[in-house]
Every structure is written in C-alpha cells, then in structure tokens.
Amino acid sequence: MTAQPSEYHRRVAAQKRTSIIEAATKLFLDSGYDGTSLARIAEAAGVSRATLFKQFTTKAALFEAIVTEYWKVDDEEAPLPQPGNLRAGLETIGRRYVDLLTQPGMAALFRIVIAEVPRFPGLGETQFNLGKMPYFESVRRYLEAENAAGTARLDDAEMAATQFLGMISNYVFWPRMLLARWEPDDSAITNAVDQAVLTMLARYGAPGTPGA
C-alpha cells in the first residue's frame, strides 16, 4: 500500500510549485519563452531539476499551469451570482473580473503571449482555451440564467458577455499593455464597472429591473 503524503509534504510541494510558476513567469518575460530552459527555471526557483520535472515535464505543461493559476476562480468561494437581481449580479462579476485582471503578473502573462505567439501559436491557444474562455463561459452562463429568470432580455448571451467584459477590460487592463504607468485609482475602477453595469441594464434589463 502506498503511503499518502502528509499535510506537511503537500504544503511543501505547493510552495515549490508556486516558486516554480513565479520564476518561470519572470524568466519568460525577461528572456522569452524560447530563451528560457527548464534548467534555468529550476535554478531561479531554488529547486532541483528532479523536483521541477516531477511537476512539469515540458515548458508547455508549465505554461499551461501558469495560465490556469492566473485565471483560477474558486467556485466554492466565488460561485456565480444567483439569478434574479441583474444589477447586483453584474456588479459582483465586474468586481471579480477587475480582481483577476489587476492581480500581480496578469499583465506580464499577456505580454509573454503577445511577444511569443508568432513563433509559438500554441501559447495563444493555451491562454485562450485554459484561461480566458472558461471565465468567459461562466459569465455567459450567468447571463443565460438571468434571461431564463426573466430579469434580462437577450437573444445572444455570448455577445452580451463580450460587451460587458470588454467595457471593463478596455479601461482597467488593456492600457497597461502600452502605458507602463497606467494605474487608475479605486474610484476610477469602481466607476468603470458601474458604468458598464448601467449600460448592460439599459440594453438588456427586463422591464421593472432596477436600473433598467
């Protein structure tokens, strides 16, 4: 019978995994995806090559883990809002999206993909399929639930989700790709979310919906 790892060993493994992901993200950004070896990542993370290879056998697998980590949403701690109050639900989703986009490293992750995707198109596919799309799908499902509940009127939940997230990211996130000092304050970010919510309510809120 194989002994199960202790809580201590699981904690140490998780800490090493975090160190590897942080080191890889920095090296990918500084030296490029192609210019960074797993050996260099192991050295920067302060782990042995055996430890790194035990968790990530290829750079592609490591990059997938980076993307998944940055876009991860704990469904138990942050479930989709219950349908019935479109305004409150959109406000919650909008704030969560801001938290995702402004977390340390997210802009760096996008810069890695943008810089390397002409030579490594798989990086873009990984970012899209494992990162952005799962989150986008959760928002689309929420809007469909509001539509079914009668609090929203929309024919295309996919387009509505695109519009809502786009309004927020176009202010909160994308300027960071070109403007190194783009750091809007909390009140400006809150206002961007509020205005996106009001626009969605005006366009898609059912009659009688607060704010519609």
From TrEMBL:
Pfam families: TetR_C_7, TetR_N. The keyword Electron transport does not apply. It comes from the Bacteria. Keywords: DNA-binding. PANTHER family: HTH-TYPE TRANSCRIPTIONAL DUAL REGULATOR CECR (PTHR30055:SF146), HTH-TYPE TRANSCRIPTIONAL REGULATOR RUTR (PTHR30055). This is TetR/AcrR family transcriptional regulator. InterPro entries: Homeodomain-like_sf, HTH-type_TetR-like_transc_reg, HTH_TetR, Tet_transcr_reg_TetR-rel_C_sf, TetR_C_Proteobacteria. Residues 37-56 bind DNA. SUPFAM superfamilies: Homeodomain-like (SSF46689), Tetracyclin repressor-like, C-terminal domain (SSF48498). Residues 14-74 form the HTH tetR-type domain.
